[in-house]
Write a structure and sequence with these properties.
heterodimer, A: mainly alpha, two-stranded antiparallel sheet, 25 helices, 70% helix, B: mainly alpha, 21 helices, globular
């Protein structure tokens, strides 16, 4: 049985139609029209994506791979627009469209007071389209276009409030850091084209073995394995998009954007594009142990060290952002030990519970009238019970509470890393294990600071209607009591809470231990998939989880956070003072930002100024432009002087020319 | 030597033109000066009729008059464009000449005779025919330059042109005589056969020296450096109507002559003449482009620009392959069309007592007449070789042919000088669009409807042929037998 290409086209194009209508005809359709049309488009995509998934998993449909449109054919290189839809793609499609749908609905409540309402809907629908094109692509070129398109929308949305200098700074930062990654990605794609002469996935993967043993001499005399170079280049692209150390600096700043996009783009979908890409390229990555070790070390480093930063953050969204970085690190580490299905599995569960956490944080922010500092929160549980409960669910899923979604995926990753013998696996195992403790600590810290304890804000009832004046109030002063968010906000929270609990238990059997992905991911040697064949059912796994090292570590984190933030808050400050150098290092985020500012940003400015003064003004303007102009003027002067106007001069020149030609010939013939 | 009726059929267009010229002379003698328009339109009619005769002639390639006259695809193609450009020349000239009281029958007679000379030149099958055609062209040109005999500048230009032209003819004839001495024949085809056989013999040296003289003669006709000195003075000194003529169609004919002589007769000596043409090309590119920058007189600037374009054309010829010849032919045609339009616009802006030949005369043209400013923009941009205009593809093809033939350094030199050259063309555009007009009065353009239309079409053709250069290009390639 074949998938229907028309359905696939509708899935991809329905959000685009919504985006175009909401974007171009925004004044005609109005607010209601804009959210109706985009939500209808995304909902249609979502329903059809579920249908496609159903067809592939239960309906016995084969993977779909065909070119739908030929863009150009030049010199033996074909550029197509085409779809490759297998189970990996279908899963991504479902995750993307489902989370996107939830975020669309949520946005109605979150952006209700914003002037850019239609623009926002247009952007997120456009994002959905771009992300679908990225995951559904059957060739590297379309992948790259989707990759850049989601990057563009991300850039537009981080700077959505373009009048805020911080938002503009953040979106420029995201853009520039992603250029670094995309440059590597483009080089990787160029490498694929160079060795395979095609950009089509199926052809490249079918002949991937041809790459082994090939070398690439970038610096003469140092042949490098072609597979390693290509895979590392491709992975540098993933590092930019999926915010891996040291290209992670843009993600925390991206929180300047509205919260719905933090949930959709900077947690659930776009940032996982790198993970998806590496999983999709598994036939290539399997060729290079070196590249996989590189991936492993980067991922493990990100998982642990960015998680640590989350402990000292006070902005509720930034804590979640650092948690996202850390979780992306987990996925990357899983890729590094060839546990592609574990990585993608975690990608899926993470998409649900992290979207839930972000949207929950957004709900809190609405209640606090756009106050994001947790130091001015506390005790919110009695004001917003739904947000409170769903945030707990999200946190339990994130920390890997046995039975919740995150437990199955994270445990699988830790187990796979622990069983790997790849270079760097020992270090990575330590990182991912300690990361569990850190994750639990900052997650419960967030919960306690926000929902439990004393109220650290003051409600100024006398202040009248200060509801709209975001940012103008003093920190911790609210005009009204905090209240539960409207239904369009709470319903998506509940809808996301369900998969955050059950999705892991439901799918762990087929995805991790069954043959869900089939040939979509390829593992050269079974070592990475350590869990294979030992699966004992989700319930048994859950029970065993309670005695595993990760759970104990998570529990320690939970216990410590509970003690400090629930019972003895004074300890937090004492510890901070006692461990001031460590705290300072974390607070300054390992000084990545100042170093990048000093070295790359200032370096670029200095280099630019040097090139401008020295190169442009000095060499080009003074020597080449003015110099050549002067030279031309001098030459012209000489030649004009020769052009005397006297006949004999002209005749003499002709004769001279003739003699010159004759002499030249004499010389040539004489030889 | 004998000829048959088939021979006459081969030269039907030329024969028609000759008799028609005689008829026009007769008509011109009997009409009153006020009716001179009759001569004008009659001349245009004659050219159009000749053009039709050339176009409808579908007969196979043949040689007539014992090989003196060659009828082939290249000749036909070149004739078509010589005649087309001549029509434009006539149309542009009418008002200009009338304003200067130069609207005399002699102008038309001389141009027509020159056209006849060019047609014979591009169809020449022997050295004699080349010389006859060339002299018919150049003698008419000398007289044309002197048309405004009361102008000292014009007379001086004519004198210089005549003396130097005579010198060049002498050089050319001397070369021909050496070639005759070496090969014992005047027939180009036979020369080719003998010259190929003669490799290594003592005749080879004689042949090679003859070749140098031929190249010098050809260089003079083209106006290639260092045989270019006559060109700026003649372009500037002649009435613009005459400059339009000698700056356009004869370049096509000169290409035909060069191709017949160098490839047709002395193709075996390509290693020698290829090098020489390359040297001439580089010199022309350098001198033409660099000196043009220093000019303030537009006609003089265009003269130096001609020299640089000749450099490009020679680059195409120099590589000695059919695709190189096709590219050079394409270039010659493109240049003739662009040049006609450029001088045509000067004539459009000229009035009685005002030549409009200084670059400053174009200041603020856009404010005064946007359409013609746009036409001049097209012309200048095309001359500079800016895509997607005709001139760009002409340059591109020549460069491609040069690269295919492995002449990398020549191509680089050509590109560098093309960039230098862009400066002075762009200056004209800048002056038209960004400088305020020097006079406040609105521009009184001549009420010459044909002039306006033909110039507009000529300008638009530069864009059209740039966008749809395929048919002309494949015609050139077919004619040269280059795939």
């Amino acid at each position: 049985m074949q998938l229907n290409p028309t359905i696939l086209l509708i899935i991809a194009l329905a959000p685009l139609v919504g985006a175009v209508v909401a974007g171009i005809f925004r004044s005609q359709v109005g607010r209601i029209g804009a959210h109706t049309v985009t939500i209808a488009g995304v909902a249609l995509s979502c329903v059809l994506s579920f249908y496609v998934l159903y067809q592939l998993v239960w309906g016995g449909a084969e993977s779909y791979n065909a070119n739908l449109y030929t863009w150009f054919q030049v010199g033996g290189i074909d550029a197509h627009v085409g779809f490759l839809v297998d189970r990996l793609t279908a899963m991504m499609m479902v995750v993307v469209t489902f989370v996107s749908l939830m975020v669309h609905v949520y946005t109605i409540g979150y952006m209700a007071e914003d002037d850019g309402y239609q623009r926002f809907f247009s952007y997120i629908a456009l994002f959905t389209f771009s992300m679908l094109m990225l995951v559904m692509s059957n060739n590297f070129l379309q992948l790259f276009f989707g990759w850049e398109a989601v990057g563009l929308v991300s850039y537009l949305l981080i700077g959505f409030w373009f009048k805020r200098p911080t938002a503009v700074f953040a979106n420029m930062k995201a853009f520039i850091v992603n250029r670094v990654g995309d440059f590597g990605f483009l080089l990787g794609i160029a490498g694929v084209l160079y060795f395979f002469h095609t950009l089509d996935y199926a052809t490249v993967f079918a002949h991937s073995e041809a790459l082994s043993g090939k070398t690439l001499e970038i610096f003469s005399g140092n042949p490098w394995s072609a597979a390693t170079v290509i895979c590392i280049c491709l992975f540098i692209g993933a590092m930019g998009k999926s915010a891996q150390v040291p290209l992670h600096v843009w993600l925390p700043d991206s929180m300047e954007g509205p919260t719905p996009i933090s949930a959709l783009i900077h947690a659930a979908t776009m940032v996982t594009a790198g993970i998806f890409m590496v999983a999709r390229m598994s036939p290539l990555f399997e060729l290079s142990e070196t590249a996989l070790s590189f991936v492993l070390v980067i991922g493990a480093t990100t998982a642990f060290f960015t998680g640590l930063i989350g402990i000292v953050q006070n902005d509720i969204k930034r804590v979640v952002a650092y948690s996202t970085l850390s979780q992306l690190g987990y996925m990357t580490a899983a890729l590094g030990v060839s546990a592609y299905s574990a990585a993608v599995f975690h990608l899926m569960t993470h998409a649900f519970f992290k979207a839930l956490l972000f949207l929950g944080a957004g709900s809190v922010i609405i209640a606090m009238h756009h106050e994001q500092d947790m130091r001015y929160m506390g005790g919110l549980r009695k004001y917003m019970p739904i947000t409170f409960v769903t945030a707990w669910i999200g946190t339990l899923a994130l920390t890997g509470m046995p039975g919740f979604a995150g437990f199955y995926s994270k445990d699988a990753i830790i187990e796979a890393v622990g069983e790997s013998h790849r270079w760097g696996a020992g270090y990575a195992y330590l990182c991912v294990l300690l990361g569990v403790f850190v994750t639990a600590f900052y997650s419960f810290r967030l919960l306690y600071l926000t929902f439990h304890g004393k109220e650290r804000f003051v409600v100024d009832h006398g202040h009248g209607h200060g509801h709209d004046d975001h940012g103008h109030h003093e920190p911790g002063h609210l005009a009204h009591d905090p209240h539960e968010s409207p239904a369009v906000v709470t319903w998506p929270l509940m809808a996301l809470a369900v998969p955050s609990i059950v999705i892991g238990a439901l799918t762990v059997g087929s995805m991790l231990h069954g043959d869900y992905f089939g040939s979509a991911v390829r593992v050269a040697h079974e070592a990475g998939e350590g869990a294979h064949g030992e699966f004992v059912g989700w319930f048994q796994t859950m029970l065993e989880g309670f005695v595993g090292a990760p759970f104990i570590l998570a529990f320690l984190g939970f216990a410590l956070a509970t003690y400090i933030y629930l019972f003895n808050p004074a300890i937090a400050d004492k510890t901070k003072n006692a461990l001031y150098p460590l705290w300072n290092m974390l607070d300054k985020k390992y000084w990545f930002d100042p170093i990048y500012q000093a070295v790359f940003a200032r370096g670029s400015v200095v280099l630019g100024r040097g090139l401008w003064k020295g190169g442009d003004v000095g060499v080009i303007d003074n020597v080449l432009i003015d110099g050549s102009a002067a030279a031309v003027a001098r030459t012209a002067g000489v030649v004009r002087w020769l052009q005397t106007g006297y006949l004999y001069t002209y005749a003499f020149a002709m004769i001279l020319g003739l003699v010159f030609l004759l002499g030249g010939l004499w010389w040539v013939v004489g030889k | 030597m004998s000829f048959s009726i088939q021979d006459l059929q081969l030269i039907l267009p030329e024969a028609f033109l000759l008799f028609a010229i005689c008829a026009v002379i007769a008509v011109d003698l009997v009409i009153k000066p006020a009716q001179r328009d009759a001569t004008h339109w009659l001349s245009i009619g004659v050219v159009v009729a000749t053009l039709l005769l050339v176009i409808i002639d579908r007969s196979a390639d043949a040689r007539g008059f014992s090989g003196m006259f060659v009828h082939d695809a290249v000749a036909r193609l070149l004739k078509v464009f010589i005649l087309l450009v001549t029509i434009a020349v006539f149309v542009y000239a009418r008002t200009y000449l009338k304003d200067r009281k130069l609207f005399v029958g002699e102008f038309h007679m001389l141009v027509l005779f020159a056209v006849l000379g060019m047609m014979l030149l591009v169809s020449a099958g022997s050295l004699v025919m080349i010389y006859v055609g060339l002299e018919l062209l150049t003698l008419s040109s000398y007289a044309l330059v002197a048309l405004n005999r009361d102008s000292p500048l014009s007379s001086e230009a004519a004198m210089k042109y005549f003396v130097l032209g005579a010198l060049a003819s002498g050089i050319l004839l001397y070369g021909m005589s050496m070639i005759y001495g070496a090969t014992g024949t005047l027939d180009l085809q036979k020369i080719h056969a003998v010259a190929s056989l003669a490799a290594g013999s003592s005749h080879q040296t004689l042949l090679a020296f003859g070749l140098v003289f031929l190249v010098a003669g050809i260089g003079f006709k083209f106006g290639a450096a260092p045989f270019h000195m006559w060109l700026p003075d003649v372009y500037q000194g002649s009435p613009t109507a005459v400059t339009t003529f000698i700056g356009s169609a004869p370049k096509i004919a000169a290409f035909g002559m060069a191709w017949r002589l160098l490839d047709g007769a002395l193709g075996g000596l390509h290693p020698h003449w290829g090098e020489m043409l390359a040297v001439l090309a580089v010199l022309s590119l350098a001198i033409g482009n660099v000196v043009a920058i220093a000019q303030t007189n537009l006609k003089r600037m265009l003269a130096y620009s001609t020299i640089s374009h000749v450099g490009f054309l020679l680059l195409g010829l120099a590589n000695g392959t059919p695709s190189g010849y096709a590219a050079a032919m394409f270039y010659a045609i493109a240049y003739a069309i662009m040049s006609a339009a450029a001088f045509g616009s000067i004539q459009l802006l000229a009035r009685a007592g005002f030549e409009a030949e200084e670059i400053d005369d174009f200041k603020g043209l856009n404010q005064r007449n946007p359409w013609y400013a746009f036409v001049v923009l097209l012309v200048m941009a095309s001359l500079a070789g800016i895509p997607p205009l005709f001139g760009f593809f002409a340059k591109l093809l020549v460069l491609k042919a040069a690269l295919d033939a492995g002449m990398l350094w020549l191509a680089i030199v050509a590109i560098v000088f093309a960039i230098v050259g862009a400066f002075y063309y762009l200056r004209v555009i800048k002056v038209m669009y960004f400088d305020p007009p020097e006079t406040k009065d609105t521009l009184a353009l001549p009420q010459d409807i044909p002039l306006r239309w033909v110039l507009s079409i000529n300008g638009a053709a530069l864009l059209f042929l740039g966008l749809f250069f395929g048919p002309l290009l494949s015609w050139c390639y077919r004619a040269m037998g280059a795939g």
